[in-house]
TrEMBL record:
<dbReference type="InterPro" id="IPR001106">
    <property type="entry name" value="Aromatic_Lyase"/>
</dbReference>
<keyword id="KW-0963">Cytoplasm</keyword>
<dbReference type="InterPro" id="IPR022313">
    <property type="entry name" value="Phe/His_NH3-lyase_AS"/>
</dbReference>
<dbReference type="GO" id="GO:0019557">
    <property type="term" value="P:L-histidine catabolic process to glutamate and formate"/>
</dbReference>
<dbReference type="Pfam" id="PF00221">
    <property type="entry name" value="Lyase_aromatic"/>
</dbReference>
<keyword id="KW-0456">Lyase</keyword>
<feature type="cross-link" description="5-imidazolinone (Ala-Gly)">
    <location>
        <begin position="141"/>
        <end position="143"/>
    </location>
</feature>
<protein>
    <recommendedName>
        <fullName>Histidine ammonia-lyase</fullName>
        <ecNumber>4.3.1.3</ecNumber>
    </recommendedName>
</protein>
<comment type="similarity">
    <text>Belongs to the PAL/histidase family.</text>
</comment>
<dbReference type="GO" id="GO:0005737">
    <property type="term" value="C:cytoplasm"/>
</dbReference>
<keyword id="KW-0369">Histidine metabolism</keyword>
<comment type="pathway">
    <text>Amino-acid degradation; L-histidine degradation into L-glutamate; N-formimidoyl-L-glutamate from L-histidine: step 1/3.</text>
</comment>
<dbReference type="InterPro" id="IPR008948">
    <property type="entry name" value="L-Aspartase-like"/>
</dbReference>
<dbReference type="InterPro" id="IPR024083">
    <property type="entry name" value="Fumarase/histidase_N"/>
</dbReference>
<dbReference type="GO" id="GO:0019556">
    <property type="term" value="P:L-histidine catabolic process to glutamate and formamide"/>
</dbReference>
<feature type="modified residue" description="2,3-didehydroalanine (Ser)">
    <location>
        <position position="142"/>
    </location>
</feature>
<dbReference type="GO" id="GO:0004397">
    <property type="term" value="F:histidine ammonia-lyase activity"/>
</dbReference>
Amino acid sequence: MMELNGLDLNLEKIKRVVYNFENVSISEESLNDVKKSRATVEEYLDDHQIIYGINTGFGKFSDVEIEAEDLDELQYNLILSHACGVGEPFSESVSRAMILLRANALLKGFSGVRPVIVERLIDLLNHRIHPVIPQQGSLGASGDLAPLAHLALVLLGEGEVFYKGEKMPSAEALNQAKIEPIQLKAKEGLALINGTQAMTAVGVLAYIEAEQVLTYSEKIAAMTMEGLQGIICAFDDLIHNARGHIEQREVAERIRGYLQDSKLVTKQGEKRVQDAYSLRCIPQVLGASWQTLKYVKEKLETEINAATDNPLIFSDEGKVLSGGNFHGQPIAIAMDLLKIGMAEVANMSERRIERLVNPQLNDLPPFLSPEPGLQSGAMIMQYTAASLVSENKTLAHPASVDSIPSSANQEDHVSMGTIGARHASQIIENVRRVISIELICAMQAAELRGTDLMADATSKLYHEVRSVCPSIKKDRAFSKDIENVQEWIKV
């Protein structure tokens, strides 16, 4: 059981809840902060003070005062009108992460909701009721309004959910789980949808996959070094220490570790003086990608413990302040950097695939074919990798540099962070398939060189992956092999 308190959620805890379905409880201290925040909202209402989103309209309607008897309807209408997302739904993992992140943000005690709102979100998690949330429709400022509105619908018994392997009306799932729908009170609808939890949830899960992919990309590159009899001297610590980038040194050190007992790698001058960049510059390129991931992780772990709605309730100071913490720019830029950093992993991997299959660049059988000419071998796998790399180049265009004004120009600069996060996730899927193709080709090349000459680390990887991808003895439909390997790599 993981206790949620709004303060110390991290990526490892998110993995436990999202992937391992660990149950969640609420910190009593944090719940007291929630109660205190709600009491402040009630005091302002009793004093008939005008506060944005509590007794006014939203966006351009912020100057429209709402009568006391209409405040509940105001929040209900907000959720219904903003639930206009389109396209395929997010995965259940993303939906689950969104619930967790939204509950964590509300537990900070700055949102003015009743405890029952947080408790219902936790009920959804613990009963594995996951809202159906369309992927498209968020501008990433004023928060992820449309995606979070679809999440909030479920608390009201509206919308749809995934439950027990089925897609069904929310009311039906709540009834089966014996969970009562709630009626929103002043401020609560706005508190549920003003936030960055869609882009951050997608970003967190994309980051977790990216870390896994980048880790395996190094191991696979090491095996390719053996298949191409690459020059290990390029990984000498003297070279990387001379430049000073820590991540570059660490990649080089790990590659040396993977290949320390290999009889397939060479030294400079034995077969050639130096290798092509896709081999020689592995530490420099992958090290830069690790630098990117370090930045992204820092921003994500800040955001998952952030108060991102508006207005914010500061009970101790007796203030209710309107601001812009819902603006997704910190995550939008982080996601664009993640896209670029991971796209480069595939760019370099595809070039190593080319070196493994191109007979003009190695002394292996053309396209690693068992019968060159009669059988095409890995020829078209390189095509697939090239296609994925090209697709990544378009997806890597930064989303955060775009902005389209909304709400009659009241919201005149937006982040497009959710688009960036979605594209980052797509890129990482493509990268995982590209490095899977490299692994298939590297295994075949190493096999042709002699698996008994491989390093212990790469030999272990070789034998593990052979359980899902047999040796190429004759042509077959390699699509299944690529999918099996990428599933094996996946978190």
